[in-house]
Fold this sequence. Notes:
- By secondary structure, this protein is an alpha/beta fold.
- The chain has helices at residues 19-38, 43-46, 63-72, 81-84, 126-130, 169-187, 204-208, 231-240, 259-271, 317-324, 343-375, and strands at 87-92, 98-104, 157-162, 195-199, 275-280, 285-289, 301-302, 305-306, 328-333.
- It is 35% helix and 12% strand.
- α1 (19-38) packs parallel to α11 (343-375).
- The longest helix has 33 residues, at 343-375.
- The chain is globular.
- The site of zinc ion (ZN) has 3 residues, from loops.
Amino acid sequence: MSTNSLNVPRLWCAADAGVGHAACLVARVLLAAACALGGAGGPAAAQPASATPSAAPPAPAEPGACQALVERLAAFKPVDCSRLALQAGNGRSARGRPILMRDFGAPGTADGAALPPDPAAAKLTLASGAANASATAPSDTRPIPAPAPAGTLRKPRVLLVGGIHGDELTATVTVLRWADWLARDAAAGRALPIHWRVVPAMNPDGLLARPATRVNANGVDLNRNFPTPGWEPKARQWWEGTARKDPRRFPGRAAASEPETRWLLAEMERFAPDVIVSVHAPFGLLDYDGPKPQNLSPPRKLGRLYLDQIGVYPGSLGNYGGVHRGIAVLTIELPHALELPNDLELARMWTDLQRWIAEYMQRSAAAQAAAGAASHPAR
Ligand SMILES: [Zn+2]
């Protein structure tokens, strides 16, 4: 990749401590993938996104709604709502509460510039970067993957969702914390290598109830309400049989009966994410549904959480998005619903997550390029 191929200032790794370094490190990993895919003078990397990116929804900030989250989560270190600048999209809960969200790193915005030129980055490994980022050292120190065949690279789109289950408070706090780190990077003028769409509290009615509830205000487990094939009768059969009519796991009277579910389905259409990350608690593991391009494994671990696939359920987001729609859906189950991992652990998870996304995108692009070459053999 030529240093002239993109006209972006080298702001990435300005001296900074903590999370900024992690973002920088991940940017370099993504850049390395970009260079590998684009090749020398990489035209692919210099091209605009191949698919029309979804712009941030034009919606007013919701300081009151964010503040309600902060007050509900008062047991945790507060987040700065003004910096987060969460927005109310068109999503509303069953009780009419806004489902807050924000985009970071969207193409065409200040924090969404293309990947910067830095030929040295192609040779970097996370191991070398970790020496400069002790506070956020990734726990995965393998070298970056070998260069892949040329293919189309565009900015990864990742939908990051917390709190589908309202009583898993740490899930929302974790997403808020990661969003705050993104907001800091954006405020500092650092271009972000991933286009994030962040939804910290997917089930605001459940979160804000006293006590908080897993289900939404209609008593529906949103993570059993997605329209997986055969939802009727599988979801009800699962609930009546395996779940023994546990009201916390009621899948609803029909697939996508709930406004929160319908909104996320529409958001999946609008945003067309490459990866969906859904944060839960308290099982302390990682689960994955979706493609495995070039035999790429799901992330073996994020921080101290290890992969332990727990199976699929009728109506779950992983089943719908990963199995049915073929989108990579990573489910993070934090170890406790009320005790947050410490900042170092959150940073390790965050870095490992972005590293895996970079690898996933690289392998996906390479697999697509190989498929294209196979379907159009040289004459
Ligand atoms: Zn959950």
